[in-house]
Amino acid sequence: MFDWVVIGTGAGLMFAEAAAKAGQIVAVVEKGKFGGTCLTRGCIPSKMLVYPADFLREAERAYKVGLRYDPPQIDWELISRRVWDQIDVSKGIEHSFSHMANVTVFKGEGYFTGPNDMTVRLNDGGEAQLKGSQFLIATGAETGIPPIAGLEEAGYLTSESFFGDKYPKKPWDSLIIAGGGIIAAEFAHIFAAMGTKVTILGRNPKLLPAEDEEIAALVRTQFEDFGIQVLTGYEVVSAEKTETGKRVTARSRQTGGSLAVDAQELLIATGVRPASAALHLERAGVQVDAGGWIQADEYLQTSQPHIYALGDVIGGFLFRHKANYEAEILMNNLLRPERPKRSCDYRATPWAVFTMPQVGHVGLTEEEVRRRGIRYHVGRYRYSYIAAGIAMGYKDDDRDNGLVKLLLDEDLHILGVHIAGFQAGALVQPFVYLMNAGEPLKDKEAGTILPLMRSMVIHPTLSELSAWSLESIDWNNPQGGES
Prior knowledge:
The protein is of the alpha/beta class.
């Protein structure tokens, strides 16, 4: 009998390691590479491609500050080697856990046979039967494949297969990306910068549908300036092989008209689904919603009191830092009884989109604020308005002039902050700290902009963008109100 059975080796490993060090007997079940989506096919290897793409784009605009470069030479072999070296870190993680005290690793696919029982189909053959007092499900999510006629025959990529057996030997000449969200935007940036002709076919009427309207529009403008064809409001209905690659037919959701796009390769990035179908959760009595996402409460407890879940498999915000946060909550509550019990609070969940321009996001968009009927103030500040931005070559009428957008309620609480531009992810982070500062139920200044208003800001730095965005607010005329 194991004290804990942990299924999945992304953020679940944080808890497994802490439990083992606390003297708990732990089973770790993983059918693939250790490290989860982030390390093996997501945020980390993709950034090994994003960073060179960023350099390429920065080199293109360097003429604005008096520098001109010959066209850069892309060493795809070196770039790729760095990607795979990073992915291979998973081997060291697996080796470490395989030799860790109180831990037994089962390489294979696990499924429940009862509330306290699991069978693992081992990768090297045979089965293992496990009994656990408590379980942690951390199996993540995977690309959801839409019902597109001819797709299987035509062939396609996903983020999983891209960082697998379909990784290209060189950048494609042309690429169709089905989807208009974060994954689509990052891959579009990577390959367009590398010289690939990229076409995005997004189902939603806007690119990056989770972002504030003004931010999404700025990204779209810059994509189009880079030569990326952005077609939103289109449903991909069929795919077929051609002599030179793939042909995709899409239908406009507004007009019903169709168009065909040809490219060397097709990437499916239309969304994800929980990676839980193989677990047979019904045999354990674990409830899921209509989409298959595991239902867990604010303490990450499922419908079975001894079974917990975290990360992408429970839905909501699908980011590794959110899963890490949840692992910390579980470690605090289940392994450190001397500490006060904590619950999950997602109101200030931040993220970045590592595209060009980079996007930083925390809190509500202006559209969400309006729908909630909240009276609010809005501030907007451009990179060209500060000395650091001017030094970087930004001018007021530039189409790539970055934007900071700040949303506050009438008591100066931060409702949302949205940034598009150089290092947006870093610029939004101080607002995350402010939103989490103080005790919201006891301190009326908690989560407000007041500490920023009282502070000095180093000059000249990009930090002035965030601080001085307050100067653009019309305090006498709040917007919004009853929904």
